[in-house]
Amino acid sequence: MARKNILLVEDELPLLHLVEKYLRRLGFDVETFSTSSDALRSFEAAPSNYDLVVADLGLPDIPGDALLARMFETRPDLMVLICSGSPFFIEKLPAAIRRQVVFLQKPFVPKMLSEAVERLLAQPKNDA
């Protein structure tokens, strides 16, 4: 099975590096960004390169929810793990994408991250 590619967006650099380390230990290829605009540029240049996006909601340049909305416009079958210290309610998302999104409340431990990623990547792909 091919290695999965994850796009990780987190503006807190120590947390960015820690989550990247956890994901690499799990066997994933990880591309990291500390700003939404850089992540969006990379994603829009090659949206099919990513199997999963892991994103913080509280990003300073483009809020995480706006970033994800733009990514879903480009790739409706995208799998997303939202990691945030702020509450997030998946029920508020459009019904069509709810099963493609998992929310992980900060702070979390590596096992919680691993379980959330595996749950998302086990989902069958939607026909985009």
- Shape annotation: globular
Q: Indicate the mean pLDDT.
A: 92
Helical coverage, percent range: 25-40%
Major pleated sheet: 5 strands, parallel
Instruction: Report strand order across the widest sheet.
Output: 2-1-3-4-5
Helix-strand pattern = EHEHEHEEH
Low-pLDDT runs: none
Query: Which structural class should the secondary elements be placed in?
Result: alpha/beta
Radius of gyration: 13 Å
Quote the beta fraction: 15-25%
Number of helices: 4
Q: What can you tell me about this protein's structure?
A:
36% of the residues lie in helices and 20% in strands. It has 128 residues and is of the alpha/beta class. It has a 5-stranded parallel beta sheet, sandwiched between helices. Strand 1, helix 1 and strand 2 form a beta-alpha-beta unit. Helix 2 (36-45) packs parallel to helix 3 (64-74).
Give a nutshell description of this structure.
The protein is globular.
List the helices and strands and how they pair.
Elements: E1 5-9, H1 13-25, E2 29-33, H2 36-45, E3 52-56, H3 64-74, E4 80-84, E5 101-105, H4 110-121
Parallel strand pairs: 1-2, 1-3, 3-4, 4-5
Helix pairs in contact: 2-3
Notable traits:
single chain; 4 helices; five-stranded parallel beta sheet; 128 residues
